[in-house]
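Supplementary Text 2. Reproducibility record for the structural model of the 340-residue chain.

All settings were left at their defaults, and a single model was retained for analysis rather than an ensemble. We include the record here because the model underlies the residue-level annotations in Supplementary Table 4.
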Amino acid sequence: MKVEKFPDRIIEIDQEQYLYFGGTAYLGLPTNVTFQDLAIKNILKWGTTYGSSRTANIQLTAYDAGEKFLANHIGSQSAVTVSSGMLAGKLVVDLMKKQTDCFFHFNDIHNAISIENSSPLFVNNKLNERLLDSKSEKITILTDGVPSFETKPIDLSFLELIPNHKEITLIVDESHSLGIVGENGVGIYSSVSFPIKRKIMVSSLGKAFGLTGGVIAGDSDFIKEIKEQETFTSAAGMNPAFVQTLSDAAEIYKIQHQKLKDNLSYIDSILVKNSNVKFDKNYPLIYLLSNKLVEKLKQEKIIIASFKYKKEAEPLNRIVITANHLKEDLDKIIAVLNAH
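Retained model, structure tokens:
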């Protein structure tokens, strides 16, 4: 299906209007007029793009403002922006290849942080025995902040079971948790307090935060190392107008996050729990385990996210709630779910 304008809460297909519950604009920012005005103001100041290396002799203060905001928001010592979440992940994994003996991953992690020759964290629902042996080594653990098909942040309590002769670096992709979970949408990074050597967060900013780009957050030494990588120094940075907008929009993020929370609380109060629907009041995705429900919603002129992540996989059917959905939108979609 092709549409000719940004799909917010309503989209037009073949000259018919549908309610839209797809995409990843969780905070509803791409069509938020106040947010757009900030971005436009910054484009007029910083231009539409800046195709220069971040290490060039001319440095833009836009990056200082936006990256300081991100570090404060996430709760990290330091943060750096890049042109996409995918690049953020690849930069971090490439650097860790030089500093780790072996990688372990949760199932179905996003491609941004996946790597060949990584071992599964769990085998037959038990922690991989390789993590519990007597060998002293450096290991890197890869996970999404909220795994696919889940509605709650990842449970990291298993870290307490790994003996301390394993030096652990944790890499978390928060593309679907930054701006969403935690107080004011801080994500999960700041709440990770297990005894590990280092924690690193990567995320797209094109989802909840509404701007094309990515972020890497962590301790100051690690971010300094990222900035010294050839892939970083030879690439153009994130659009400086957008990085400046991150800082300027701090209050808008709070307002929109509260609207999203209110929508989720309202859904929780009217949704009848059943085995075909997976929902948690703190997360803006409702997973549908029945393909029939997808078709029924379409008959009611409601379009949700339904697509295959991998060629051979089953369709991923999810309802995406945003800060922009109105009470009547929520009433309509929940009525369909409650009827089944």
